[in-house]
Write a structure and sequence with these properties.
The protein is α/β, with parallel strands linked by helices and 392 residues long. It contains 16 helices and 11 strands. The chain has a 6-stranded mixed β-sheet, with helices on both faces. The chain has a 5-stranded parallel β-sheet with strand order 2-1-7-8-9, with helices on both faces. The structure holds iron/sulfur cluster. InterPro entries: Hyd_form_HypD, HypD_1, HypD_2_sf. GO terms for molecular function: 4 iron, 4 sulfur cluster binding; carbon monoxide binding; iron ion binding.
């Protein structure tokens, strides 16, 4: 497939690995920001192919995982109402709230539907004027333009039975929070290429300068990731710390101005709570005053929510790169994709799900389990086979 096959080429992967080996002289710790990159790294065994001096730390870039528990519980409450058609991407259905998830609500009679776009939900609102249609608008900068567009269209069409339950997060404030956290070991970042394709790279030079870390905009195929690592290691070895775009086929410095204008029209920057991490200033978006009528949290006035996280779940530490999923006592035993205790085990971008799906089991055999929703099943990697570590 064009733009996929050529970025999985084993010969080129071997060459990039050789270059990384030839460049590195001492230990470096890099964080891949996005959960999609984490899945690609674990699926292809990239972390196991690297020289031992290069450590990859998995970052918090899984929007499903960082959606606060109180927002999940609000979604469960709203979805239970008889007048509501609650629409969501499939990932969210198994994310545990306090005591239940959206699948359970659906099983109990709630009208919960999986959609592939917020515009599908908008269409449902047009076809069901007697029902309230709510779309669960989560995600990083990547999904924000389409969600903004849906609300913009709803207002233009005069649809007053459509609303968003918003839980958007922004990457740059998360990088700032990671770098200022006590005990941070991160020395360089592989920034999320898809986020930069929307927002551009203008927000990153200040972060790179302030924290003296290279930030390399990186894609998602194996060669993209190896190239991102190669460039980050080269900067570190030279004592450099700048923004570098290793995903030029998708990212321009200015990003996508039309998408940015749509975000600015509909959303405004707000402080946000990150599940397992806590509050991060200016790290989210909420609906701007002009669109507040489309905010499901206001429309349904959900109050009195009491949240309770399972005490055993260490997803917060996983999301901050402080532990690997296999260091959690519940991993692969009481916590599996079929019985998730935390969102990181169920999201298609969650690190725990990646380790389970691709059999990083620390010697345990995984139970038979479905792939996390929206995740392709394990497929044969085309990276150099003799160098792959067949885990599990
Ligand atoms: S394995 Fe399960 S319980 Fe442990 S951190 Fe991951 S999601 Fe939480």
């Amino acid at each position: 497939m064009k733009y996929i096959d050529e970025f999985n080429d084993p010969q080129l992967a071997r060459r990039l690995l050789d270059e990384i080996r030839a460049t590195v002289t001492r230990p470096w710790a890099l964080m891949e920001v996005c959960g999609g990159q984490t899945h690609s790294i674990i699926r292809h065994g990239i972390d196991q192919l690297l020289p031992e001096e290069v450590e990859l730390i998995h970052g918090p870039g899984c929007p499903v995982c960082v959606t606060p528990l109180e927002v999940i519980d609000k979604a469960l409450e709203i979805a239970s109402r008889p007048e509501v058609i609650f629409c969501s991407f499939g990932d969210m259905l198994r994310v545990p709230g306090t005591g239940r998830d959206l699948f359970r609500v659906k099983g109990e009679g709630g009208d919960v539907r999986v959609v592939y776009s917020p515009l599908d939900a908008l269409d449902l609102a047009r076809k069901n004027p007697g029902r309230q249609v709510v779309f669960f608008a989560i995600g990083f900068e990547t999904t924000a333009p389409a969600n903004a567009m849906a609300v913009h269209q709803a207002r233009r069409l005069g649809l007053d039975n459509f609303s968003l339950l918003v839980s958007h997060v922004r990457v740059p404030p998360a990088i700032e929070a990671i770098m200022t956290a006590p005990g941070c070991r991160v020395q360089g970042f592989l920034a999320a290429g898809h986020v930069c394709s929307v927002m551009g790279t203008a927000e990153y030079p200040e972060l790179a300068e302030k924290h003296r870390v290279p930030i390399v905009v990186t894609g998602f195929e194996p060669l993209d990731i190896l190239e991102g690592i190669r460039r980050a290691v080269r900067q570190l070895e030279r004592g450099e710390h700048r923004v570098d775009n290793a995903y030029a086929r998708a990212v321009r410095e200015q990003g996508n101005p039309a998408a940015q204008r749509m975000i600015e029209e509909v959303f405004e920057v707000a402080d946000r709570n990150w599940r397992g991490i806590g509050p991060i200033p200016a790290s989210g978006w909420r609906l701007a005053d002009a669109y507040r009528a489309y905010d499901a949290a206001h429309r349904f006035d959900v109050t009195g929510i009491r949240t309770e996280e399972p005490a055993i779940c260490r997803a917060g530490e996983v999301l901050q790169g402080m532990i690997k999923p296999t260091e959690c006592a519940a991993f692969g035993t009481t916590c599996t994709p079929r019985t998730p205790l935390g969102a990181t085990m169920v999201s298609s971008e969650g690190a725990c799900a990646a380790y389970y799906l691709y059999r990083r089991m620390n010697g345990q055999a995984p139970h038979s389990a479905p792939a996390p929703t929206g995740t392709p099943g394990p497929q044969g990697s085309r990276l150099p086979q003799e160098e792959m570590n067949p885990v599990g």
